[in-house]
Write a structure and sequence with these properties.
three-stranded antiparallel sheet, elongated, single chain, four-stranded antiparallel sheet, 37% strand, 7 strands, 1 helix
Amino acid sequence: MRLMLACSILAGLTAAAHAEMRVNFDWGPTKKCFDANSPPFKLSGVPEGTASLDFQMTDRNAPGFHHGGGRVAYKGQSSLPYGAFRYKGPCPPSGSHSYVFTVKALDGHGKALATAKASRDFHQ
């Protein structure tokens, strides 16, 4: 019984120490057709030892179109403002497209510590 209790406590502590990184965004003031300023982001669960965050955007409706992304120094902030990095913003040809940002937490040597994704539609 004590062994099971010890294992439960250890599992809980391990889960708390390795909280899952999460990212969310809204388009905020993003203008249609290739606004070069990134949207504002909210971050949580960024792992200890993260030196930078690498952002890449993909259009789920046109995955072959390269929107790029950017890298931002990480100093413990829980949010990034509009324009934190430069990229080629959304410009769906008609209606709306679904976009996904993949964010990687990188250590000082460029090794990925965690990855998170967030998606949102952009309406023309």
